[in-house]
């Protein structure tokens, strides 16, 4: 049985961790390096940083934060947001990131996925897919922090990303993001059953039971949350204990 991963996500804007609901109404929560170091000590399997305003503001991702995190964190971490070129990918990996996430730029230039995979290996390439359900019954790919509808079918885009060399998908439901009613199970299941690479479920977790549920109902490889960890509603330990009690194979805290 493959061990399931529990991943805190730190959305960063102007150097601070923020969180909102449905990608809006952002509130400031703290220092990203300090929070990342704490999560590392508390038993996070991995971490994900997303510079959520980098694409809209046309600036580079937070390289200094990445360097400081690499000095203070001892679990793998992914960085995304504002990744537009192969040079951006190179810069982040050199700064200490283990993986680089790409979303809007990958949609605009799918060859970026292939180029990054060939140069650094697919294990370094995470394609982030923000998906929203539309009246046509399909999940559309959203870009620019969930604000722009591309009209692309999210399931078809997931297939394409895998074919181009993505090593992992970060799947976020715009509909459930920050709502805390649970992960979007239909969307997650549809994507997981379409691809062979690992998928991280994101958007909607409000309790440890939601993690156990998404692992039980889908073959997702990892599940991600922000609000419940950042606001100290639940700890990583509580999530792992709940999952273990419900038969989910998770890594014990301290075994890294």
Automatic annotation (TrEMBL):
The active site is at 11, 130. It is found in: Cytoplasm. Its EC number is 4.3.2.10. Pathway: Amino-acid biosynthesis; L-histidine biosynthesis; L-histidine from 5-phospho-alpha-D-ribose 1-diphosphate: step 5/9. It catalyses: 5-[(5-phospho-1-deoxy-D-ribulos-1-ylimino)methylamino]-1-(5-phospho-beta-D-ribosyl)imidazole-4-carboxamide + L-glutamine = D-erythro-1-(imidazol-4-yl)glycerol 3-phosphate + 5-amino-1-(5-phospho-beta-D-ribosyl)imidazole-4-carboxamide + L-glutamate + H(+). The gene is hisF. This is Imidazole glycerol phosphate synthase subunit HisF. Keywords: Amino-acid biosynthesis, Cytoplasm, Histidine biosynthesis, Lyase. IGPS catalyzes the conversion of PRFAR and glutamine to IGP, AICAR and glutamate. The HisF subunit catalyzes the cyclization activity that produces IGP and AICAR from PRFAR using the ammonia provided by the HisH subunit. It comes from Terrihalobacillus insolitus. It is an enzyme of class 4 (lyase). Heterodimer of HisH and HisF. Belongs to the HisA/HisF family. One of its GO terms (biological process) is L-histidine biosynthetic process. SUPFAM superfamilies: Ribulose-phoshate binding barrel. GO terms for cellular component: cytoplasm.
